[in-house]
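Deviations from the work plan: none for this task. Representative record:
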Amino acid sequence: MIEKSKIKNLRQRWIRLRRKKLKQSISTNLYKSPLISILKFIEIHFAKFIEICCLWFVILIFTFYILHLNCYAQPISSSELINNAKQYDGKEVVYEGEVIGDMMVRAEFAWINVSDGRSAIGIWIDKDLLKDILYTGSYKSKGDWVSITGIFHRACSAHGGDLDIHATSLARIKSGELKQERIISTKHNLLIVLLGALCLILILRRLIIR
Amino acid sequence: MLLKPQIKDIRIVSYYLGKIIIGLSLCLTLPLVLALSNQEINPAYDLALSFLVGLIIGLILISVFKTDEDLNWMQGMSLVGLSWLVAMFLGAIPLFLSGHWKSYLDACFDAMSGFATTGLALVQDLDHLSVSCNFWRHLMMFIGGQGIVIVALSFFVKGFSGAFKMYVGEARDERILPNVIHTSRFIWLVSITYLILGTTALGAVGMLNGMKPFNAFFHGACVFMAAFDTGGFSPQSQNILYYHSLLYEVVTVVIMILGAINFKLHYHIWMGNRKEIFKNIETITFFITIMIAFFITAIGLSQAGIYPKAVVLFRKGFYQLISGHTGTGYQTIYAAQFKNEWSHLAMFGIICAMALGGAVCSTTGAIKMLRIGIFFKALLEDIKRIISPEISMVTQKFHHIKEIFLEDKQVRSALLITLLYLLLYILGAIVGMVLGNPFLNSLFESTSAAANVGLSCGITNVNMPTLLKLTYIFQMWAGRLEFMSIFVLMGFFVAAFKGK
């Protein structure tokens, strides 16, 4: 009970002090307009608060701007694109992966398929942009690793509803290479053993038939 | 009373199993030659090892259990059920050795999927798989589509009456020609002729699409084998989406439909009886069910609003539908798109199409058109009987190559198989749900596995639980053989333990 009354007293004192300050400021103010007086009052009493608010606001706007600019500038995985196709539909995305299979030229454009290891996505691209690509992924070669920037379509109307990316730029990040095949000696030895076993069975069969 | 199988039964089954294994091993020489000509050294070792393993086992079996006796029904049926399991284990060896499958179980899953012409796959990094191993995947579909036993019947058996029992055991209850061996050879003739035509067509389209000549024709051969045998494997991980071509889709649709047609109907068309297409109960039912299923799917897709243009909706919806209905499983959308973007109604339309399947004596799985047609005819007969005067004699006919009077025996048989298929679909769906998948997705994947389709909504992946992998393997096996041989094989083992 005592603490409550103390707090009440303190609050009343604080209000009185504020009122006093306000009266002083208005009386000392050279401007006669009430609006300017109010603004002056706010400036005096909430200056720091306004400063902090403004700073936060600027930071917030800047962050949003940066985020908006670079929203999809980071490479997006194929599974992210396929699973959230609606979210990315019609937006510019950056997609990275290995060029696999054939580069299928269709007049001025071409289809390439780029796999990031999880899934492959079809890329519709200007054929002139493919000049840098030397290797495409297959059993015998590791394809070039490329970064594609383009517009993502979850059901492209121009291409029969395919999920694809219409590339605006292509950058080769890592060059592919031809793979060297190494013979696994275990397989070689096992093959010799099995050939021996087969010969033995064939000889035994011959002997039994005779 | 169950009679314990005698030594004689085991000897006969083992002897013919040995012959089938040798036949399958010899099939491995085709990809082996391809590996050697393409200078793929490790795949050549893998294929050679598998070939030798098969040949040795086969030779041991035919040497130890040598017999001249013919097969009876129980032996023939058990042999078929068993040979499909053995084929799975043998076919999985080169897959597993390639290192593109995480475990031998995964390789077995893909081998069964291949032989049963399903198309569900657990392969890793398919885009870097060797040409020869990829060819073997598709060849398994071609062999399985014709029937593993038919391979042996056609090339390694000179003629015996037990052939018919094996032929029936592989879910082919119609003889095209009086002799079963001639029938199986005719099936091969049709398939090889279409293989040449289809590969040429797909190769030409591939080249038009900008593919390199070797790749265009290699892909053409692989895609033909998987499409005609309503399998669904493809040489690249994106399936048919890899080609980005309307023409490619059109050609594959034609091949899929050809594969879903009864070989008996093929024979009559080849013999000049083209009117049969328009009169046959199976083609009529097929046409009607496609229309109904597409209507459901199209409504579902327009509800989902993913395809704003009608042409695009038709292209995507119709392709997946035909692929599902013929039991092929080719996709022009990603698996995740089914569950994420297609509405439940659209998925339901595809499930219905998958559950129905193509024609009997074709390469498709599922309930099949003849049975659906018979149901409707039986229903029509019953309605006629009710509305006709009591003293009138009501009969119902249907046209399947010739006019046939509908009998209760046919209806009962069709109903029994349909019921078993429905149970199989539900079994897989329950297992899927028990393992935490939603109902519709589980039903979709289960129907796809049991009806040997291969469309996937994403449940089938390398990380799925072992129990689900085993369930799908069982479903593919049982669905392809239409149950009887599997029940007989189970009976064979039960009798071995409990029989007197």
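Chain A has three domains: 2-68, 76-178, 185-210.
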